[in-house]
Amino acid sequence: MLVQPLIGAAAGLFLFLLIESRVVGLPGTTDKTDWWFVLATYGFIAGFSEPFLLGTVRRVAGTAEKNAGSS
Q1: Cα four-point dihedral sign 20, 17, 42, 61
Q2: Other beta carbons within 10 Å of 50
Q3: Per-chain mean pLDDT for the chain
Q4: Do residues 12 and 43 make contact, with C-beta atoms less than 8 angstroms apart?
Q5: What is the CA radius of gyration of the chain?
Q6: What is the full DSSP assignment across the chain?
């Protein structure tokens, strides 16, 4: 239970770093007006998508395990 907020915060921080480095271009990130509001909104969305993030990691790890077991 304690780990979930930390994973959500890490997801928000990771998205912030992607936006700042210009690797990912999301709507509203090209204009610097209301920059903090846009970043806070995307960070909030990334933080609440933590179950989706963990599910994706679980599926990728499961696929990798199946491929390693079949070879």
Answers
A1: positive
A2: 19
A3: 75
A4: yes
A5: 16
A6: --HHHHHHHHHHHHHHHHHHTTSS--TTSSS-TTHHHHHHHHHHHHHHTHHHHHHHHHHHHHHHHHHHHH-
Q: Which two tokens stand for residue 46?
A: 């990334």
Query: Which of 21, 46, 20, 24 has the alpha carbon at shortest distance from 35?
Result: 20
**What digits encode the pLDDT tens for the residues 33-67?**
667 787 888 788 887 777 777 777 777 777 766 66
User: Are the beta carbons of 12 and 44 closer than 8 angstroms?
Assistant: yes
Question: Which residues are within 8 A (CB) of 13 and not within 5 positions of it... i.e. 6 or more apart?
Answer: 43
Note the pLDDT of residue 23: 77
